[in-house]
Amino acid sequence: MIDWNKKRVVVTGGTGFIGSVLVEELLQRGAIVRVPMRAENYRSLSKLRAKIEWMEGDLRDHEYCTRLVMGMDALFHLASHRRHLEFHHEHCADVVTGNVEMTLALIHALKEYPHARVTVFSSANVPPEIDVIRLAALPSTDGYVLGKAIAEALWLTAARQYGFPLLIVRPVGVYGERDTFSLESNVIPSLFIKAETEKKMIVWGSGKQERVFLYVADLVSAAFRLLDVDAGGIQYVRPPDVTTVSELATMIRDLVHPNLPIDFDTTKPDGSRSIPVLEPHACLKDVPWTPLAEGLRRTYEGWRGKAVHSSQ
Questions:
Q1: Threshold 0.85, pTM exceeds
Q2: Is 50 exposed, middle or buried (0-12, 13-18, 19+ CB in 10 A)?
Q3: Fewer beta carbons within 10 Å, N or C terminal of the chain?
Q4: How many CB atoms are located within 10 Å of the residue 134 CB?
Q5: pLDDT tens-digit series, residues 34-82
Q6: What CATH number is associated with residue 42?
Q7: Cα-Cα-Cα-Cα dihedral of 235, 28, 77, 229, to 10°?
Q8: Is residue 242 part of a domain?
């Protein structure tokens, strides 16, 4: 089991949805945390900003990344060039390039720190075989998924050559109260917006498509479990329960606006089935996963509480 007390840790994307939860957990475990930033926007870490070492710069800059990892014991890489699905398809090359540039700059910096433990947060939507040629040749390609696939290949080969311990975490659809809530966001926050602002809840696709969703705190807990048993390579993180989009929409509707009509727009695609084909690590078999209904309740209450607070 890793003792994080006094360990010096870098968390890229530390002010983000998942990263901020991870930073809070590291601080509770006694770690000394450094977070890169491009502007003074501490977001969910505003109350903790005095406890964090902030370092302003661009993660695509090799020299900056070299300074960023200097003296560090571990790196958690969560920063990504990410917007929404339509943007990822329309600006595929830009999204791929942004994510790969960050990966290359960090790998270049880690050449001098082979002892640093590296944990990279990827996506369960990356095909198990990481077939980047097939992905790139598709008529319409998700630049975020393609960028993650290329980045994984780069991280795996760099770890082999330079010797640093590497864990690549592939979580299924992560959700929580710190997510970005808009109609262009991922399915859960976008459905919350629809349920609260529209007279009828329009859900894309048939509603029969199956999904697995992961509460953000469970992801962070699972990542530490994997590190504690020295798991390496690519590891999936997913609860066992499968939910249809129709069931999800009903749960969200009942939380926000009971009796609101729900319609399914079958002219829109169902999307790909985001259920990984590989089994999770044995250390995750007995994780007390947060039930979806409970996670959605926490997400809604946390989001609405933040919205009320910001309006006052």
A1: yes
A2: exposed
A3: C
A4: 12
A5: 999 987 778 889 899 999 999 999 999 999 999 999 999 999 999 987 7
A6: 3.40.50.720
A7: -30
A8: no
